[in-house]
Amino acid sequence: MEAAISTLITEFKKYAGKDGSSSTLSKDEFQSLVSSQLSHFVKNASDPGTIDQLMGSLDENNDGELTFTEFWQLIGKVACQQGCFSQ
């Protein structure tokens, strides 16, 4: 599990550093990350409307960017769905 957590942190930082703050994901960075890293787990991952809806549901402070903590919610939801755990 330690390797999985390290990978999640590394990938978040890789995408977050592309434009603006290196500690948050912009909409474009988030779409790029989801499309390339979670396309099998997020239905319609390349659809801008899907990304808008998903980002809106995760962006707790409505600042248009996702912190790692906000992003982590998506990882939890995806893991629960894949593991057939109730939410």
Automatic annotation (TrEMBL):
Q: Name one GO cellular component term.
A: perinuclear region of cytoplasm
Pfam families linked to this entry: S_100
User: What GO molecular function annotation could you give as one example from this UniProt entry?
Assistant: transition metal ion binding
EF-hand domain mapped to chain residues? 46-81
Q: Which residues form a coiled coil?
A: none
Keyword entries, A-Z? Calcium, Metal-binding
Task: State if Calcium is listed as a keyword.
Answer: yes
**Superkingdom of the source?**
Eukaryota
Q: Which InterPro entries match?
A: EF-hand-dom_pair (IPR011992), EF_Hand_1_Ca_BS (IPR018247), EF_hand_dom (IPR002048), S-100_dom (IPR034325), S100_Ca-bd_sub (IPR013787)
PANTHER family given for it? PROTEIN S100-A11, S100 CALCIUM-BINDING PROTEIN
Name this protein carries in UniProt: EF-hand domain-containing protein
What is the source species? Monopterus albus
